[in-house]
Write a structure and sequence with these properties.
Helix content is 65%, strand content 0%. The protein has 331 residues and is mostly helical.
């Protein structure tokens, strides 16, 4: 993958620093940041953060290695801190309310899932979306699904006991249960090909809006920091618990607009798989973590709420561009 196009002064400076043929000490220290407010909605800042994170994944063919450059890490931390602060402010009400309604983690997670409101993108795709809109949806989803499950694998080394075993079980399934052709990322690549799209990792980053980058960045924010391991696993629980039925609806929408069966096959794979994964992620992964580390309960719920909050932001952005009426989409 090559470095994406900049979307403003900060991402332009980050791209320039990475593109240098020889690392220049202090170059990241010279990056000028604006006042860091509304980071969640800032395409320039979200892209800069995504680029900095990507160094810990596949990296860039036209960039030098700055993954552990102290100045690059310091820049990333400044962006992360502002992003995390905004997310905590946006979700604290849901977290506190969940803590007040029950002492049981499963009930608390279910309360947050029910409380965070967002547009019914899956329902719209099932019943109303055009073929072009379905394809656009696949393009945006490719930013994550071509490295599906990779962010949460960073957490394995940061947990132990039953939590580690349950997380490893879930990830093993996500990675094809021993069959490379069944890797969920590979299945999504097949879906892209079936839709006439480019399956190359990172091919559509330049087309992903800032809200989609934020959805991706929050995973790295949580999983690349040990102190946020509770939030990382809460995010995973929310992701799995809200996947099965939407995947069924998306698959139906894909079939409705006439895309090949290989496209809907990716989502059909997740209908049954994620119904089982929901129980593993919520009860075994998060439940075990909170039993062993009760001080992480609030962070687990923060991760749940942050996942759903950013999905709602991205959904509203998508509906805005499509001119879709969220109230007209039945649940």
């Amino acid at each position: 993958m090559r470095l994406p196009r900049a979307r403003g002064p900060v991402s332009a400076q980050v791209v320039d620093c990475l593109r240098a043929t020889t690392p220049v000490p202090g170059s990241f220290a010279d990056v000028v940041l604006p006042d860091l407010h509304e980071v969640t909605h800032d395409e320039d800042l979200q892209l800069a953060l995504w680029i900095l994170y990507e160094q810990s994944y596949r990296g860039f063919d036209d960039a030098t290695d700055h993954e552990w450059d102290p100045d690059a890490v310091a820049l990333r931390r400044r962006l992360e801190d502002a992003f995390e602060t905004e997310l905590r402010a946006a979700t604290v009400g849901h977290v506190m309310e969940a803590l007040s309604v029950s002492d049981e983690l499963v009930a608390q997670v279910e309360h947050v899932i029910a409380a965070v409101d967002g547009p019914n993108v899956a329902g719209y795709l099932q019943r109303q979306a055009t073929r072009e809109q379905v394809v656009e949806f696949l393009v945006e989803r490719s930013v994550y699904h071509l490295k599906e499950s990779d962010p949460h694998s960073f957490v394995l080394a940061r947990v132990d006991g039953r939590t580690k075993v349950a997380l490893a079980e879930l990830q093993y399934d996500e990675y094809g249960a021993g069959r490379p052709d069944r890797l969920h990322a590979a299945l999504f690549a097949d879906a892209l090909v079936g839709a006439g799209l480019d399956p190359t990792y990172g091919a559509y980053v330049d087309r992903a809006p800032g809200s989609t980058l934020a959805v991706n960045n929050v995973m790295s924010l949580f999983t690349l920091q040990r102190r946020l391991r509770g939030a990382a696993l809460g995010h995973l629980a929310a992701f799995e618990a809200t996947s099965s039925m939407p995947c069924r609806r998306i698959a139906a929408g894909i079939d409705r607009v006439g895309l090949p069966p290989v496209v809907s096959a990716y989502f059909e794979e997740h209908v049954e798989a994620d119904a089982a994964h929901e129980q593993v992620a919520v009860r075994d992964v998060c439940g075990s973590l909170v039993t062993e580390h009760p001080e992480l309960r609030e962070d687990v719920l923060f991760g749940v709420a942050a996942c759903l909050h950013l999905d709602a932001v991205a959904g509203r952005d998508l509906f805005g561009r499509w001119g879709a009426d969220r109230e007209a989409v039945a649940s």
